[in-house]
Amino acid sequence: MAARQLSAKKPKHLRYTLRTFLSYLGRHKFLLLAVAVLVSISAIANLLGTYMIRPVVNSLAAGDWNDLVLGVAITGGIYLAGVLSAYGYTQTMVKAAQKVLYDIRRDLFAHLQTLPLQFFDTRRHGEVMSYFTNDVDTISDALNNSFSMMIQSFIQVVGTVTLLLILNWRLTLVTLVTYLVMFLYIRFSGKRSKAYYNKQQACLGELDGYIEEMMGGQKVVKVFNHEGAALETFRAKNEALRKAGTGAQSYAATMIPAVVSMSYINYAVVAALGGIMAMKGMTDVGSLASYLVFVRQSTVPINQFTQQSNFMLAALAGAERVFEVLDQPAEVDEGSVDLVSLEAGGWAWQKPDGSRTPLRGDVRFEHVSFGYEDDRLILKDISLFAKPGQKIAFVGSTGAGKTTITNLINRFYDVQRGTLTYDGIDVKDIKKSALRRSLGMVLQDTHLFTGTIADNIRFGKLDATQEEVERAAKIANAHSFISRLPQGYDTMVTADGANLSQGQRQLLAIARAAVADPPVLILDEATSSIDTRTEALIERGMDQLMEGRTVFVIAHRLSTVRNADAILVLEGGQVVERGSHEDLLAQKGEYYQLYHGMFELS
Question: Which residues pair with 392 in a beta bridge?
Fold first, then answer.
């Protein structure tokens, strides 16, 4: 443990991290002040209790029983006060630490909700989770164990040196030389282990990422019989971590034995010199006894202070990662146009001046260019339109930009050049919450939450009644399979729907969109994991859902594309063809080739 503490990784921006961390501590300053006071009382009681050896021993040597009894009683009272203070500060520190951690977790989760989708696209799931686990746990350990211990150790170190000077300043000069050698060695071992520790952290991160990837892909590993190869790779990465860890801790692990050895040598030297001084009358026996106990105990607060300092540095390193996330700029929303429901039914866009524009679902791209990276465009000068109530289908090869178009409509990303309008309003002028409330979306990769099937459908509309939930399930043709489940709509969904088939999960995702009753619907290959028979049932239900709505469909299946009002063929980030199914077939172009390729696959 000591080795790991010594090699703790320090934060890069210590001053900023410490300032931010102190701002969190400051929210509960009265609890922490109480902790500091109680810790101080406990530390001072320990010092005074050791100092009381002097009058007790001197009284015993002089045969003064009254002073002896009084000294023992005072010593007992001092230690009792120390015990009560220790109990008080440990309980108070637990409450204070949990309040601080609650604030950090709350602020972190709340801020993550405001970050743009790009933040999550550029980070692994495990990395985001580590903020709440590894980093916050490190802060928790430091607050629960190190905060009070550092105060106590600091007071004991300063108090011990002060009392040593009071008891015998000559012997203290010898002790201070030993302390200096201790600190120099601690600094030396810390520097030596730092480079190895950085390598250890890199190897640990690589190993953790590999484990997460392999555990998540166990089905693929087993299908291709790659268990042996996976194990060999793991062994190689684990061996690299072992070597880095051994190097990181080889120096640090010697710290406690070295310090203890130096303290033994110091104790022996001071005891010999003190005995000579006592025999020559240069000090009394009580002072020497108290002094030797102080010297014997002095290495404990030094070790504790050093170790807890590194614990705190490790906690600040974890806190720095959390604070870096909290400093990430939130998703920019400069929109002012809101979405309001009309008394007569339907929806309208309400501008800041109070004027309203009916929501019709007219979406237009005018010379739009976009790339997730500035130097690589995905969409190149695209112009397209979807009239109210039209069903627009996007087809094309992988990477042509189909999903990117829907990401722009949702404003998961903003267009870099050109204009995207919604009912004649630039989407940048519409509040993101209002824009997304007007859109229903069924993604290719379904995601279900822990809860009942009804809860997952109700995620599209949190206040939906059971009747609305069942009606949405019937539209998506999910009602029949739900009814056959043991608990029906109350069946629990766990592990992202692992107890359901992929097709059933997508049916629930479609039902979730149906219960939201959105004016505009986006289907991103929503039926990709559903068999053709189930898809035919869904098509009939979806026709009811799509009636009177603008619908954007991304699909490779012929049945989904064929009945669209307009089909847009994308290739290389550009629209190369547009028209109905029959028109595009007659042109015998890209769609004609794609159609026949799909026909052969179906």
Answer: 552, 566
